[in-house]
Amino acid sequence: MKKPTRRLPSTSRRTFLATSAAAASALMSDLTLRPGTALAGIDDAIAPRHIYAIQTDGTFLVYVDNSSDTAANWTAVAQPVAGPPGVNWADFTKVMAAGDGVIYAIDTAGALRYFRLLDPWRNGAFAWSTDSNTVIGTGWGGFTTVMAGGDAVLYAVDGGGGFNFFRHSWAAGGLVGTSWVNAGASLPIGSGWQGFPSIVNGHGGTVYAVNDSGALLFYLDHAQVGQSTWVGGTTIGPGGWNSFVNVFGGGNGIIYGIDGAGNLFRYRDRARNGTMDWANGGNGLQIGS
User: Can you list the positions of beta strands (E) in 119-272?
Assistant: First the structure.
């Protein structure tokens, strides 16, 4: 089937109900998972990229996107993966993918839990690491947005619009640690983020934000050390990004958007420095429906 393209979104606003590339699943943001809904998290920054989805019944699905800037290529579609014993993914309020199979989840009590998925493309079979479902923090329920920045970094936006930096430790053998930089206390590195309806993790310190007008802005936490070392704040998408029901990041400048018909589009910010330089002439590649 011919895969149509879509240019950078126009400024029209629409109301959407998203569905995923699999008819039974809804691909929603890894930042907005609520009980009874579903999410899509993104994994590796280079192809193949792993997109995770959770159905309303708690089924965990793995998609593998090997698309280029101009051609769609799904290595695997909707591979169900049984969770660790006792885990129902639909019970978490937020789930975030961090790369290399690492997944964080926040439960209804506000506990932050760590998981790592071992998969056939990297590890030979689907399985969960022995330290999966480890509680590594508490008090995370009050944040409006939480993003996994990679390399044990997490960003969290609080109700007042404060942008906070966290980094946890690693234990021997590559297992997750339970100690944190700054003894687990947040390190504020920004403010005013409550004004963005959508905040997208670009990984490696890159953050994209959609404002009320639908413009897409680029930010970079340059140092990732818990200090305010931001670069950017510039508009790289002039408008219409709020026409997508959901926008989420894929690393390496890749941004995915889901429209109201359930079509999944792929864009790539080639510059990743705050200038407007889009792959494929700014055409979004439809890679799923």
Answer: 127-128, 134-137, 145-150, 153-157, 163-170, 176-180, 187-190, 198-203, 206-210, 216-221, 230-237, 246-251, 254-258, 264-268
User: Can you read off the two tokens belonging to residue 284?
Assistant: 């979004």
Between CA 37 and CA 48, with CA 42 as vertex, the angle to 5 degrees is 135
Total H helices, total E strands in the chain = 1, 23
| Maximum pairwise Cα distance, the chain | 53
DSSP state of 131: T
Which residues, other chains included, contact 244 with Cβ-Cβ below 8 Å and sequence gap of 6+? Answer: 9, 16, 257, 258, 259, 265
Q: Which two tokens stand for residue 196?
A: 């963005």
Q: Parallel, antiparallel, or unpaired for β 187-190 and 163-170? A: antiparallel
Q: Is the pTM of this model over 0.70?
A: yes
CA gap 159, 5 in Å, rounded: 37
Neighbours of 200 (CB within 10 A): 27
Give the tens place of pLDDT for each residue, 238-255: 888 999 998 988 888 999
